[in-house]
Write a structure and sequence with these properties.
The chain is of the alpha/beta class. About 30% of the residues lie in helices and about 20% in strands. The chain binds zinc ion (ZN).
Length: about 450
């Protein structure tokens, strides 16, 4: 058998197994796994002795070049996917927003036209529904057939015109059930949230960025999750809670799963590694995300959820805003562009603070950021594992190597990092995307436009 590339002698890690083997790659695919694969003349050898060979990570929650708060997020489809490659993420899922009164496919085609010439790793899109209607219900099966089986709805953002009320959410879940689709929700309680925001707005100088956390107590998330779970329970529609930030949320999802409700969820590194003390510093506003970073006991509960299984996925909600963009808040916590860089540090953060701190095995890490995302979002077994026939998407890690996080050394187009100065292990020495080396030692070395839209299958489950 001839190979274009052989990854030699590494410890191959999947969600269920670890074993020393060579990985033989021809074209874009893994074609052999075994001992002492025989490279011919001209085969590229990547020496992985003493290293871990992981499936490329899949970040199912990314917003690149997103218009928000009168600006556009600072990582575009180029810098954002370069950052992904440098951090070992070989597939990401971004979002296509429905323009009010237009169909979903129009938003998807516009987003794909923006992404296609720029993306450096593979990508897909979730379809954001901003205005539910009979027409949208009728379009759902076409979008699913096109390869996008997941739809996101916001329970907040009424003023922006993006909110889905209970009627919309209920109807969408019922429709999704009929076509094996999934409804993703941003779960926060619109009405009560606005009461609290108005309350703290009166004293905004006194509280500064900390008002962002004061105005969004945990119950504003957990009440909305509870309500969405109810609609999932009664319709049987598959619900997925995005960027879950509270321990209460994990409790609710666990109980619902035990009762057979088809609900899944993700949390993000910022909710695991940081807590709301960050808002008290002079640059506290930089850390504003939506929902915001919560308390240490929430982080603790979310880590436990990752271990026990009620939180099966870590994704980043990358939405990069640089210091100039963040400065637009001018002391008003309601005007901070919400979001932070993250895709580049997904794998290292979970490798360092999950695996290395012995919270779980490396196999479990693979399940959280590669296999579960692939299975739940219809990419498996093309992606999310290392197996003959799968795409040759790999992250090769030297377990002894660490790096001090410094935004200046990173591919993200951001002039700060929420993890600045932290020591992290697990940055890949080499990242391969469909057989091509796209990053080496933290630097993007691939080709612009190498990335490709990946059609996904419906009915994903773990
Ligand atoms: Zn998001």
């Amino acid at each position: 058998m001839s190979f274009d590339t052989v990854v030699k002698g590494g410890t191959v890690v999947t969600a269920s197994d670890s074993f020393v083997a060579d990985v033989g790659i021809t074209g874009e695919k893994i074609v052999a796994l075994g001992q002492d694969l025989d490279p011919l003349n001209g085969t590229r050898i990547i020496d992985a002795k003493g290293k871990f060979v992981l499936p490329g990570s899949i970040d199912v929650h990314v917003h690149l070049e997103l218009p928000f708060c009168g600006t556009v997020s600072a990582d575009d489809f180029t810098t954002g996917t370069k950052a992904a490659a440098a951090g070992g993420v070989t597939t990401l899922i971004d979002f296509a927003t429905q323009d009010a009164d237009k169909g979903l496919m129009e938003g998807i085609r516009n987003r794909m036209a923006a992404a296609e010439p720029k993306v450096c790793v593979d990508y897909s899109l979730h379809s954001i529904i901003t205005k539910w209607s009979d027409e949208i219900a009728a379009e759902l099966p076409d979008v699913i057939e096109f390869g996008i089986p997941s739809f996101k709805m916001f329970m907040i953002y009424k003023r922006e015109g993006w909110q889905s009320d209970d009627a919309a959410l209920y109807s969408a879940l019922a429709t999704a059930k009929d076509y094996d689709g999934m409804i993703m929700v941003h779960a926060e309680s619109e009405g009560v949230l606005n009461v609290l925001i108005d309350k703290y707005l009166k004293d905004k100088e006194k509280w500064g960025a900390y008002a962002h956390t004061l105005s969004r107590p945990s119950f504003t998330e957990s009440e909305a999750i509870q309500r969405a779970i109810k609609w999932s329970e009664v319709t049987g529609g598959h619900l997925y809670v995005v960027h879950m930030s509270t321990g209460e949320g994990a409790d609710l999802v666990k109980a619902a799963k035990e009762n057979g409700v088809p609900v899944d969820c993700e949390t993000c590194p910022q909710y695991l590694l940081l807590n709301d003390e960050v808002f008290k510093g002079p640059e506290g506003h930089l850390y504003a995300t939506c929902p915001q970073i919560k308390k240490p006991h929430d982080s603790e509960r979310l880590w436990k959820g990752l271990v026990d299984g009620e939180v099966p996925i870590v994704a980043t909600d990358t939405c990069t805003f640089d210091k100039t963009q963040k400065a637009m808040w001018e002391g008003d916590f309601t005007r901070i562009p919400f979001g932070m860089p993250g895709v580049e540090t997904l794998l290292p953060s979970i490798f360092t603070f999950g695996y290395r701190e012995k919270k779980f095995s490396l196999n479990h890490l693979v399940s959280l950021i590669a296999t579960h995302p692939a299975k739940l979002f219809g990419l498996y077994p093309q992606k999310g594992t290392i197996a003959v026939g799968a795409d040759a998407d790999l992250a090769i890690i030297d377990p002894e190597k660490s790096r001090t996080i410094d935004y200046r050394q990173m591919e993200t187009n951001c002039d700060w990092s929420p993890y600045q100065g932290m020591e992290m292990y697990g940055f890949p020495d080499v990242t391969l995307s469909r057989g091509a080396v796209v990053a080496k030692d933290g630097k993007f070395v691939g080709k612009l436009g190498h990335g490709r839209f990946v059609k996904r299958t419906r009915g994903g489950s773990l």
